Amino acid sequence: MRIAYVYDAVYPWVPGGIQRRVAELGRRLGDDGHEVHWFGAHAWDGPPLVEHDGVTLHGVAPPTPLYVDGRRSIRQALSFTRHLTRPLAAERFDVIDFQEFPYLPIFPCALAARRHETPLVVTWHEVWGDYWDEYLGPAGVAGKAAEWSVGRLADSHVAVSPLTQRRTSALTGDPVELIPNGIDLDAIRAVAPARDHVDVLYVGRLIPEKNVSLLVRAVARLAAERPDVRCRIVGEGPEEERIRRLVATLGLREQVEMSGFLPDSTDVYALMKAADVFALPSRREGFGITALEAQACGTPVVTVRAPMNAAADLVDDGVTGVVSSVTPAAFATALDAARDLGSRDCVTAAAAYDWDVVAEQTVESYERAIAGEHGAPTARRVA
Asked: What GO annotations for molecular function exist for this entry (predicted)?
């Protein structure tokens, strides 16, 4: 099978959950004999067309910042869309898998699919809906229209979480297949815990929707009772300086360590195994793969109950973690309670999400799409 993935940010040069999914699936499908291509921005040194981990990378657009003032750049999305059109249409694939956000590249994907009579699969990581009004104000109507257009142009839909599956079905009215993100269980099992123990660990981007300030304020409450509490924040992003200022303002320099991005996943797993609790305070999470990885490391997870936080579906409240309300006091209480939960339950729950299993499900999904068996109307291609 000849497969084209379309997503502007390419792993490992640009970290993130969506690009991690594409990289993990691409490597496994390539190992199984499929020909896998990834059309993205040219983020690596060297020529724009290279082989990496069994995947042919097409750097079709110059690298430009994904975020401006903490928000996804519309200019970047337009640039990638413009540069994608010709090279994607120049080749024929058995299936095109478009990662749904940013929405604009769906148009060259649909044109290429129509030209070569190729099924267009859209993998949905989130559905924003009315959240666009909060994100862009009056201009949110444009975001909602673009999201709706993606739904209309797809031949088949895949969602990575039950929350996104429900929201995608409501948006499109079409059948939506659930294929979750996964974890590399063998890699996680092979890693020893780090020597540096921490009470609370966060790993992820430092952007507003990750809500890391909630964690810092919760740690301040814990520190009032336990001055020796230790929290480590691993990641980088536009919110970094604001979070550092908050740590200083709350007098938490001794309790909170900010260590930047760790490119090696084994280092992340080692930290997870050395932590009592993993914190994921996101108000909006399309899946929450770090929560799953933490559970596979035997570490309970504390996340929040929010309408757009799909990570809450990964936590068995009171067994593999705690789902908290979105206040510093409640989150602090949840962090404290999660320390008493057993690691065996966490490991058992995470075992169902191995990337090898997800790759098999993905191939079966592509075969159904090629056969036209998803049930989504094929007449929705670009006219």
From this structure: hexosyltransferase activity
